[in-house]
Phosphoesterase (Bacteroides caecimuris), 267 residues
Amino acid sequence: MMRKSVYVFLSCFLLSGCGMIDYHPYDVRISGETEVNAHNIERIEANCQGKTTIRFVTMGDSQRWYDETEDFVKEINKRNDIDFVIHGGDMSDFGLTKEFLWQRDIMNGLNVPYVVLIGNHDCLGTGAKTYKAVFGPTNFSFVAGNVKFICLNTNALEYDYSEPVPNFTFMEQELTNRQDEFKKTVISMHARPHTDVFNDNVAKVFQHYVKQYPGIQFCTAAHTHHFQDDVIFDDGIHYVTSDCMDLRAYLVFTITPEKYEYELVKY
């Protein structure tokens, strides 16, 4: 009788305890919105259709700085002159599933659409799989007004040559994809050439493709955590890098028919 009572007790304990079981931090179980980039690209393209002047924000490396990112969202929501936001990658610190979901939920508080690039920290563990599940492909593009944005995975160090990073096939295809819809180009990435996770063996090939894009304006990046504006090749093309969220700053770019300009904003 005692043995039977023990079995009944253990069975009840195990059944009642099922709600306490947590999933592994790298278990890619997604709750909430998925395909975030695709949904927001639809909004960006619709909102910017026919515009000859666009204004957008770049930021990145939000990682462990949740409060600072929440404050960033509040700052952008105070403005009425921003068309969209580009998050330059490293949403997560360790590639944990919950990190992506927490950051996604914070960024979803923006009044304007946003897209997220993949960063090197986002590739840790099952992070790349989670990124794809939540945001979509690691290489993508969209057209805002008459400007095409090429968004690239440049985190070669994290892939050990298991897939092409940067993907030159994608870059070549985008030269002519929707070519009647854009006159200018902006290229965005997490890590620019000559940083630790970029494959500098192909830096000159990368430069070759960048120069081919119609009306190339500039390139944007994140990763280094500090604002920089560098012409890293002898081609006049600027690579403009955002601060990390810990520094409470973002960049506002304005592209007009005649020129482009940007402003570093502290908050």
Q: What stands out?
A: Confidence is low (pLDDT under 50) at residues 1-18. The radius of gyration is 21 Å. The helical segments are 2-16, 36-48, 66-77, 97-107, 127-134, 168-176, 203-212.
